[in-house]
Design brief:
Helix content is 0%, strand content 33%. The protein is mostly beta strands.
């Protein structure tokens, strides 16, 4: 996901801002602002949303599947 998306993403539960933690960036050439892994954390409720393979999983916790892909 592009780092610029952080400006428009919000927590699906309470619509508050999300903060990026433990970000891993793409290492190939022009994709230096591409986040491939990490965690988005809600600044209000503290809920955590994983980023895997560049895709943020913004499903509420009770709708997330806990099994690995």
């Amino acid at each position: 996901m592009k780092e610029s998306l952080l400006e428009i993403l919000c927590c699906p539960l309470d619509k508050q801002d999300l903060e990026l933690e433990d970000a891993e960036y793409a290492t190939d050439g022009d994709e230096s602002d591409e986040i491939v892994a990490g965690t988005l954390v809600c600044s209000e409720c503290g809920e955590r949303y994983p980023i895997e393979d560049g895709i943020p999983n913004l499903l509420p916790p009770d709708m997330r599947e806990e099994t690995p892909a």
